[in-house]
Automatic annotation (TrEMBL):
GO terms for molecular function: DNA binding. InterPro entries: HU-HIG, IHF-like_DNA-bd_dom_sf. Residues 1-125 form the HU domain. The lineage of its organism: Bacteria, Pseudomonadati, Bacteroidota, Flavobacteriia, Flavobacteriales. Keywords: DNA-binding. This is DNA-binding protein, histone-like, putative. It holds the Pfam family HU-HIG. The keyword DNA-binding applies. It comes from Epilithonimonas zeae.
């Protein structure tokens, strides 16, 4: 299976008068659900899909809670998740409060196993 990409035309935002160029734009193609993961895992072990799904659900619930508590969650060599965000600046340190925080997001960092898999990825132009 290959990573699919389409071709998009984009102007240079810093040089609007330059001619636009064409770029490869990686696109999603299909999806994998939690149920799909559990089904796959059940074929690789003696544990049922229902049991694996229960473990995955409780694991991801714990991951979500810990990220919301400000922890950095290390999931083996697969990935790391933590909270990140942006805030509005203030003139002094004393003026900075939680109200300055404007956005909060999950920061995903792939681990060695995902990075290694991506190094071996192949690409296919869609269309």
């Amino acid at each position: 299976m290959s990573i699919k990409f389409s071709v998009v035309q984009r102007a240079n935002p810093q040089k609007r008068d330059d001619p636009a160029k064409y770029y490869a734009n990686i696109i999603g193609d299909g999806k994998t659900t939690l149920s799909d993961l559990a089904k796959h895992a059940s074929t690789m072990s003696t544990v049922s899909k229902a049991d694996i799904l229960a473990v995955l659900e409780s694991t991801f619930e714990k991951i979500a809670q810990d990220v919301a508590d400000g922890k950095i969650v290390y999931v083996g060599e697969y990935f790391t998740l933590q909270a990140g965000g942006s805030s509005v600046g203030a003139e002094t340190e004393k003026e900075v409060t939680a109200a300055n925080i404007k956005t909060v997001k999950a920061v995903f960092r792939p681990g060695k196993m995902i990075k290694d898999a991506l190094k071996l990825a192949t690409f296919q132009k869609k269309g």
